[in-house]
Design goal:
Helices cover 30% and strands 28% of the residues. The protein is α+β, with helices and mostly antiparallel strands and 64 residues long.
Length: 64
């Protein structure tokens, strides 16, 4: 069964957004692989501390 990993800065998603991401990734993988709708796909959401996350040479500051 497929496992998808998602990394993002901590505290950036609401519980509803997390559910939408898991559902969307599950649907994409099942559609691409032509798997039945009930096939299991694991989605691991990994929250990275804000101070350990960066982009284009900038490290994001932790929220205060």
């Amino acid at each position: 069964m497929p496992v998808a990993k998602v990394y993002l800065p901590e505290n950036t998603l609401t519980p509803d957004q997390r559910r939408e991401i898991v559902k969307g990734i599950h649907e994409v993988i099942n559609n691409v692989e032509k798997r039945p709708p009930g096939a299991q796909t694991y989605v691991l959401i990994n929250e990275v501390p804000a101070s350990d996350w960066g982009n284009a040479g900038t490290v994001y500051a932790p929220r205060t």
